[in-house]
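Example 3.2
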Amino acid sequence: MKVFKRIKKVMIATLIAAMTLGAVTGCSSSKDGSSSGDSKTLNFGCTNFSDSLDPSSIVNAAWCVSRYGIGEGLYRFDQQMQPQPYLADSVESNDDKTEWTFHIRDGVKFSNGKELTASAVKKSLEYTFQQEKDGKGTAHPSQFLKYDTIEADDEKGNLTIKTSQAYADLSAVLSNPLFVIVDVDADTDMADQPIGTGPYAVEKKNEGTSLEMVANEHYWNGEVPYEKLNIIFIKDATSKYMALENGDVDVIENISNISDLEKVKKSDKYNVSEVVGGRTGFAYINQKEGSPLANDDLRKAVLMSVDDETLCNTTVGGMYEAGISVLPSSLDYGYNELKDATPYDVEKAKKILDEAGIVDSDGDGYREFNGDGKNIQLSFLTYDSRCLKEFSEGTAANIEKIGIKVNVQETDADTEWNKLTAGEYDLLSNNWLTVQVGDPIGYMENWYSKSDANYCSYKNEKYDKLYEELLVETDEDKIKALVQEMQQILIDDGAALIHGYYKGNICSSKSVEGANVYTADYYWISTAIKPAE
């Protein structure tokens, strides 16, 4: 599928900026922005998305293994979301696209020196699926790939995957970090020290604070620029900015405080790479039986109480573009043809609740179901990443204006994910890359009632039927039409609370070059990041 046609052309602006930098650990910068410290060490600051590095354990862990330059996949997305050969150098399929043969690239080794073979790739993929089957992993690779067999021929270097359904392009599916290749036979703890083929290898994991990494001496794809790499976990957005300003880090991901980002952009000592891609910030709405938001009237009123335009343009300072659908307007899936079923209208929201008997019977300012005296209280889980905390707090304030109490609870990414999969929430903020395998099919499974990935217990028979059609459809125009219709159903049912569409960024000091953000932000650390000449 040609995602290039579906993503609007968005310029990646590189701006140069300057601030006084202090001394740093490993690599520091002088006042003119040049490196004055150890140019053999790179310090990278980011949110800690997962305490585990076992790619099967949780989605965030798989992404971290890819982002930190530890592991790589058979294929890799370019800026147009087209899959390009990586650990595999070619792929062939049969006519009905249910049998795919990948040739594993010669000369690749894991960071422990072990040769990458077709058998090693087979073990890695099967490990991830087996962990899911055994209930030990929540990454859910089956959400994107359903297969019958995986066969390895080490003599020919071929890996053959027979799938249980047709795929338009399996190389795009395997570009997802869920399918990052690791040495499952290594004698290290997968959660702390996975062994991959990437340019850097984990030397020491400091729980919750940092990763100490070293160059992979066996790396197959060119020279590794730094001898050491420190991944430094920084909790909030402003602290990230201050770490860059003080010289404690050389590169940071996603400054989401607009005032801090503007300071960096106006300076001349920093590089800023930005892109509007395929990310949607939204809140899951728990609709399981017995949950408050399973009530159609309450859910509709809640959605109508939220001022998306103000939240996106003012609360988070334009870091998001307001929208109505689970898929961004930047993707060509008929966004402009969609109709908003719950436009912002506080008075109408209050009227809906009044007519439904959801009223404040005791005059304490909060409503109850049928005047039973028990206030409706919604739990709203969030974490501090990509403005999600700000969205949750702003959304909660909006909802309380219609007399519904909202308790915002900030947690970490791992805990939030576990609460999501357990269904222990009413609203839960998240930020998803919606085209994780080059199309939104796997993402749309989040609302398919027969899927384990349907964490919100949403159910609509028509949506399910269309999704099942989508699974077997390979014609691009028909896929587009199906997805457009499915989006409208979700909008009409109030299936999700949409925050908006995110603009990602990577910021770096002038002592570094090549630190760019990707449309698919699976890749942060690579050999492209190196000391500036």
